[in-house]
């Protein structure tokens, strides 16, 4: 089974949604985890609501990126520009990819969470299918 790490700043929205979507949709091929460079300590309720709307019940927790130093991943994906700047070099194994998604927490509008969720699902599932 391949492993992917999604990195973000707060690990409360985008990286959590990516982790949940990959584990729900591609769990037979990929194991996804997520972390933040400055974890918020919670998962945004609207991120959880947006996931629930597509049948995904996510029970993750906000984690620190440093917790995964030394862990082997096939792919490390930064999903926000801040995380890409703060983690310019991934010292562990794994190919690094960057794809920035807007932060829906900035507007706190459920429609923005839905749009980011849908974009993450389309982009990340395509990326991982091509990496199998």
What can you see in these coordinates?
With 132 residues, this protein is α/β, with parallel strands linked by helices. The protein has one domain: 3-Layer(aba) Sandwich (Rossmann fold), CATH 3.40.50. It has four helices and four strands. It has helices at residues 14-26, 45-53, 81-86, 110-131, and strands spanning 2-8, 30-36, 75-78, 95-98. Strands 2-1-3-4 form a four-stranded parallel β-sheet. Helix 1 crosses helix 4 (110-131) and helix 2 packs across helix 4. The chain is globular. The relative contact order is 0.24. The mean pLDDT is 91.
Mean pLDDT: 91
Q: What summary fits the major beta sheet?
A: 4 strands, parallel
- Could you say what the CATH architecture is? 3-Layer(aba) Sandwich
What is the assigned CATH homologous superfamily?
Answer: Response regulator
Beta percentage is 15-25%
Count of helical stretches: 4
Taken in chain order, the helices and strands follow as EHEHEHEH
CATH class: Alpha Beta
The class by helix and strand makeup works out as alpha/beta
Report how far apart the termini are. 10 Å
Sequence stretches where pLDDT stays below 50 over 5 or more residues: none
**Rg estimate, integer Å:** 13 Å
Percentage of residues assigned to helices: 25-40%
Number of beta-strand segments: 4
Layout: helices, strands, pairs:
Layout: E1 2-8, H1 14-26, E2 30-36, H2 45-53, E3 75-78, H3 81-86, E4 95-98, H4 110-131
Parallel strand pairs: 1-2, 1-3, 3-4
Helix pairs in contact: 1-4, 2-4
């Amino acid at each position: 089974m391949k492993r992917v790490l999604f990195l973000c700043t707060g690990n409360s929205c985008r990286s959590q949604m990516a982790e949940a979507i990959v584990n729900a949709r591609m769990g037979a091929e990929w194991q996804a985890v997520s972390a933040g460079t400055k974890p918020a300590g919670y998962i945004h309720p609207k991120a959880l609501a947006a996931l629930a709307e597509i049948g995904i019940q996510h029970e993750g927790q906000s984690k620190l990126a440093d917790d995964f130093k030394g862990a082997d991943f096939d792919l490390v994906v930064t999903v926000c520009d801040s995380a890409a700047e703060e983690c310019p070099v991934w010292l562990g194994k794994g190919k690094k990819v960057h794809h920035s998604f807007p932060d829906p927490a900035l507007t706190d509008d459920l429609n923005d969470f839905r749009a980011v969720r849908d974009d993450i699902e389309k982009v990340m599932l395509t990326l991982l299918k091509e990496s199998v």
